[in-house]
């Protein structure tokens, strides 16, 4: 399996064409979770025409210096031949990842894993972050982060401005339209992005939603306004979702603004859509419950470092979670290797979800609790 990864997803082998809705998802696997009322997201998903999956023929070669020149040459010469094992091959597939605004979040890691598996990458970037993201990409500031396992750089075919809070231009309030942070960008509502992607490429095979937006995330739920709550639900549990969080089922003080409710809705929709989309289109629907990551978005909560320290102290695997690990899990779920997995909440959190208590509590000082000795 690829050394780097992908969270939000499946629809593994597809022919680049648009067909009737009846045949849209035939023989496919999709990794997305959704709220049915968010119809515009479905339009983005409907840019996908899925056909039967193909065998995997690619594995990923490490650039480790442990190989001598002869070994590297021999491996390079056979790279296009079928190999033994279970490699992931997404060559010929096109992925749209919504929610990439820098190079240190889960969205970026998912894009890298899908690229490492051979997929073409399109991304949707939050409008206020678009200029700095494109500038950084153009000036090579992300080049080190773009390196794939074979030494090449991840290529992003196109970056689309996107604000998933708004379905269509009619939904955008005047103050947002007049906001300087949105100046110079157009066609960034969900409906417009879906239509533009369809015009540009005709179809996509993998749809990833790694967005999480709660304008009042620092407020307790009791103090969250209706607007803040609905905004969180709208952007964080819309039609193509791949990333959730343990706050959906456990209390995480400080994770407010309706975000915990949004993640709970996401997970519920994942199961319902797994049944409906599976029966109707043979599409798989899954979501990844990822542990805490020191990303730019997570820093907005204000206590991400504390959450990471807590996880390291209490999870079965005492180490800091990397974005790449979540990306690898998503790459697996996006592939035919996961052809029988649907309706699942897949935990990628070093096992923290399995714990019923925090073992770093003084209550357990007298117990001989195993600790990581590595």
Task: Name a few traits of the molecule.
374 residues, alpha/beta, 4-stranded parallel β-sheet, 3-stranded parallel β-sheet, 32% helix, globular, disordered N terminus
Helix and strand topology:
Elements: H1 39-45, H2 69-77, E1 94-98, H3 106-116, E2 120-126, H4 127-138, H5 143-146, E3 156-162, H6 174-177, H7 190-201, E4 206-209, H8 226-236, E5 243-244, H9 259-281, E6 286-290, H10 296-299, H11 304-314, H12 323-333, E7 344-348
Molecular structure report:
- With 374 residues, this protein is α/β, with parallel strands linked by helices.
- The chain has helices spanning 39-45, 69-77, 106-116, 127-138, 143-146, 174-177, 190-201, 226-236, 259-281, 296-299, 304-314, 323-333; strands at 94-98, 120-126, 156-162, 206-209, 243-244, 286-290, 344-348.
- The protein has a 4-stranded parallel beta sheet with strand order 3-2-1-4.
- Helix 9 (259-281) links the parallel strand 5 and strand 6.
- The protein is globular, with a radius of gyration of 21 Å.
- It starts with 38 loop residues before the first helix and ends in a 26-residue tail after the last strand.
